[in-house]
Design brief:
- The structure is a single chain.
- The chain has no helices and 22 strands.
- The chain is mainly β.
- Strands 1-2-3-4 form a four-stranded antiparallel sheet, with no helix packed on it.
Length: 259
């Protein structure tokens, strides 16, 4: 028999899962947001004070995304037919509940730059790519993203009709296309050409629409359309792993972990 949640209260969670992708997000210079077990934790880096948001489903927190306005927060759960919960931020008042996006859990999610749409990808066995009109709590588009793990989904910076997903042995470029049967998601698999097939842990879209991705070899790959245009190496010809990245003006900034 399951005990009622009111029988106890959470005191403290020590540490968090460092192996989980995109599991920490800086809110400002002094505050970070991360998931640990079945909670989302907001931490003040100066005082080390933490506030906890407990998940509403039985499983762990799968992923989360902050709205571009930083006034809303989306949290994807794990468990049997989990939901996505939209909270007001920082009050953490529940605002919306999005259903039907995954069978067992969510691995990644992303808002459009204008904040009107939310995309999610599911964990195994379904690996579903879902686009929500979150304000009306409605699924707009729904399709299988790939046949293996999908690590990340992100909307284009300047076109809410384009998305990119990546994961085990693939990267895929999606467009929302009007067809005679209605709006559809159409995806093109990235072609590695002469480069070895690779898991794609992370990627970033450049201002001109090209995409730079990581690779298992450590080299950075520049994608134009669904083809590799070139490969980036350091001056020493050593791999330059993409562990974190951002685009600042016309420059690509990425972090590395020393060997």
């Amino acid at each position: 028999t399951e005990l009622p949640r009111t029988i106890s209260s959470l005191y403290h969670i020590g540490g968090f899962d460092t192996s989980r992708r995109s599991n920490i997000y800086p809110i400002d210079d002094n505050t970070v947001l991360y998931s640990a077990a079945n909670c989302l934790v907001t931490m003040d880096l100066t005082t080390k004070a933490r506030t906890y948001l407990s998940g509403l489903d039985l499983g762990a927190v799968g992923c989360f995304a902050l709205h571009p306005s930083k006034k809303l927060l989306a949290v994807g759960s794990c468990g049997r037919k989990p939901n996505v919960y939209i909270y007001e931020f920082p009050s953490m008042s529940l605002s919306k509940v999005l259903k039907g996006g995954a069978l067992t859990g969510f691995s990644s999610m992303s808002f459009t730059e204008d904040g009107t749409k939310l995309s999610t990808v599911g964990m195994k066995p379904d690996f579903l790519l879902t686009v929500y009109d979150w304000e009306s709590e409605r699924i707009t588009l729904h399709t299988k993203a790939f046949g293996q793990d999908v690590y990340k989904v992100a909307f284009s910076l300047d076109d809410p009709g384009r998305l990119t997903t990546s994961g085990t042995g693939h990267i895929r470029f999606w467009n929302m296309t009007n067809t005679f049967t209605g709006l559809k998601l159409q995806g093109e698999i990235g072609k590695f050409g002469k480069i070895d097939l690779s898991d794609i842990e992370d990627f970033v879209e450049l201002p001109d629409g090209k995409v730079v991705s990581s690779s298992e070899s450590g080299y950075l790959l520049l994608w134009e359309g669904n083809f590799v245009k070139c490969r980036f190496v350091t001056s020493s010809l050593d791999p330059s792993h993409m562990y974190d990245k951002s685009v600042q003006d016309s420059d690509l900034v990425f972090g590395d972990v020393p060997a």
